Amino acid sequence: MFRKAHVTGESAAIAGEEEETGNEAPIMLDDDNCGQASSKKTGKRKHVEKDFFSAYNNALNTIVSRHTDGSSCSKGDEVPTMKEFLGMVRDCGVLEGTAIMYTAGKLAMNKDQREVFAAFATTEGRLDWLQRTHDEMNKWMMVTMIVSTN
User: Fold this and answer.
1) What's the predicted TM-score (pTM) here?
2) Distance CA 29, CA 42 (A)
3) Rounded to an integer, what distance in angstroms lies between the CA atom of residue 105 and that of residue 99?
């Protein structure tokens, strides 16, 4: 790639952060016109490299800004954490140590279930959904137990 190029600490630079002082000597490569680099070719190479690194930095900044802009969500779009979810269940009047709290704990492990629960506007709506989900889960558990004993 570099062929027989020799780079010293004095001539090394971080890509895209080169400072042009006007007294740099070009690095000679074997394929440069018989050992002599024309200033036209070297100037063109620097211009292409500068354009490349400028475009690269712009693209990188765009990606980073899109990531940070896209990751922020409004308060209404947030999914509650498991701890917040169980706090909301307690706010509905469900006591710890009950079967419905056990069901709520199982539901808390699923992000989609927490999102649905949080979407209800009232504690009554949340409690109703939780009770129906609890009943549905227990119904399937009873059916499974009956089928497995036969």
Assistant:
1) 0.45
2) 11
3) 10
